[in-house]
Amino acid sequence: MIQNKIFISPSILSADFANLERDIKRAENAGADWLHIDVMDGHFVPNITIGVPVTASIKKVAKVPLDVHLMIENPDKYIEPFANAGADILTFHYEAVDEANIKSLIEKIKSFNMKAGMSIKPKTAPEVAFPYLDYLDMLLVMTVEPGFGGQKFMPDCAEKIKSIRQKSSDIIIQVDGGINAETGKICKEYGANSLVAGNYVYKSENIIEAIQSLK
Ligand code: DX5
Ligand code: ZN
């Protein structure tokens, strides 16, 4: 079930933060469709990365949409700040919110004219997302435990894409974690249509070849 358009979203977590504008331009010139921004709070995940001010600075130089992946507790508090910073797609984690609040969270994200995404961690069953597929623009299936770039792809997690694609033909299914040409191909065959890649893109010798090989 290969989808028509595949959105490639290089994760700037693997970029050189002292040369962020240069690395953003490199990815854009190599054919990146979006830029993936990993926001971590040291609570929901053990790592701390970047937040609202850096996202706002990136917005000033980026041409492509900003795909912001919130790996934080209380995502509700940060919807408006990230909207103001220029996020185009805002993805929260299913595991970080109360089930009763998910629909209103999605509506709130959309009310700021952003696309709404929800992510599931490796141990979370795909079925939990089924009630929300009609409301979400994107479902992000993690293929590593969130927290760090450069981890090994978990094939069992990618299998979850199949049942989600069966339930929804039009939702964007994104995968994140250990994606390269080979693992990305598996995910696309299962029905994913957005690939995040950090190390594979930014640690490659030829960024154009790396991005093109994911398409
Ligand atoms: C992991 C992050 C990923 C990470 C991916 O928690 O959500 O976006 O940057 O990095 P790679 O592609 O190197 O696994
Ligand atoms: Zn991510």
Q: Biggest sheet, in brief?
A: 8 strands, parallel
Rg (CA only)? 16 Å
Poorly predicted runs of 5 or more residues: none
The hetero compounds bound to this protein are: D-xylitol-5-phosphate, zinc ion
Question: How would you sum up this structure, described in words?
Answer:
The chain has 215 residues and is α/β, with parallel strands linked by helices. The chain has one domain: TIM Barrel. Helix content is 33%, strand content 19%. It contains nine helices and eight strands. The chain has an eight-stranded parallel beta sheet. It is globular, with a radius of gyration of 16 Å. The chain starts with 6 loop residues before the first strand and ends with a helix. The mean pLDDT is 98. Bound molecules: D-xylitol-5-phosphate (DX5) and zinc ion. Zinc ion binds next to strand 2.
